[in-house]
DNA sequence: AGCGTAGATATAGAGGAGTATACCGGCGTG
DNA sequence: CACGCCGGTATACTCCTCTATATCTACGCT
């Protein structure tokens, strides 16, 4: 049995180790489309619920409510009830949420620039399989 | 009816417009935990199926297969069958996938550094609701 | 009183993604 | 031969997300 060949394989695995146990639960919470889009909207300045719904054209009432609740639970956005007339709830970004600005902006920009390329790749793949 | 107040609201919406229609379908494909982790592993160098499964400790056989299929469909990774003995399938990153390296690395690093903060926020939130 | 707005909640159903498990096929070794 | 390894598929079940829709409270306007 060639011990050396197997050992070389193991060394490669160790050197490029990935902290799945540490990062996976975090990515599970933040790596989804609505988190990226909501934080991108909230970064420049706070917004109220229905304002968010208008800007995130196509999002459902419940989907937005759920996404905001998760973001609030994770300490990325802050919920504040305004004493305005018709009540009013303002969602603003927290310092922790702001630290996600750069990564999320990069992701948003990537989606903007490489979106067409991605779509073409999908079409090519689907046609090659058909 | 105060027209100016409504107009001011509309102006705010226009100035910070978000291209949901363009970015949402893209983020739907790439913004998920396994895409980030798989591409992070594949960035330095290609890997075979079971190598990936060992590094992504905890991922299911099927989950990895599905994720790789989606990444391949989107043109982010390349699948190549090796004529080695026991067969062998190597997954490598494409130029398009490489353009995601910076954003995904930023996300991975964020998960590493801010993971504990996130966890604490969750605990605090859950306790305040209990 | 009746209507509109703002935020929230509830429900039912569709669909995607994940887990667990078993199986196929080719090839190697004991 | 019987077994394990490698890549992959198939199945069934669960869980989460999204959609669509309806209902609720509180306030203001006409």
TrEMBL record, chains A, B:
GO molecular function annotation: DNA binding
Q: Which UniProt keywords apply?
A: DNA-binding, Transcription, Transcription regulation
Q: Which PROSITE patterns match?
A: HTH_HXLR
SUPFAM superfamilies the UniProt entry points to:
Winged helix' DNA-binding domain
**InterPro entries (alphabetical):** HTH_HxlR, WH-like_DNA-bd_sf, WH_DNA-bd_sf
Which residues does the UniProt record annotate as the domain HTH hxlR-type? Answer: 21-119
For this entry, the protein name equals HxlR family transcriptional regulator
The species this protein was found in: Thalassospira mesophila
Task: Give the taxonomic lineage as stored in the record.
Answer: Bacteria, Pseudomonadati, Pseudomonadota, Alphaproteobacteria, Rhodospirillales
């Amino acid at each position: 049995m060639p011990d050396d060949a197997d050992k070389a394989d193991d060394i490669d695995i160790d050197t490029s180790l990935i902290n799945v146990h540490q990062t996976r639960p975090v990515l599970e919470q933040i790596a989804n489309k609505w988190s990226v889009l909501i934080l991108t909207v909230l970064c420049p300045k706070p917004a109220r619920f229905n304002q968010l719904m208008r800007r995130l054209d196509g999002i459902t009432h419940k989907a937005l409510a759920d996404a905001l609740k998760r973001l609030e639970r994770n300490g990325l956005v802050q919920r504040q009830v305004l004493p305005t007339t018709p009540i009013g709830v303002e969602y603003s970004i927290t310092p922790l949420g702001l630290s996600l600005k750069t990564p999320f902006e990069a992701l948003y920009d990537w989606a903007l620039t490489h979106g067409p390329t991605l779509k073409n790749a999908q079409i090519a793949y689907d046609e090659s399989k058909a």
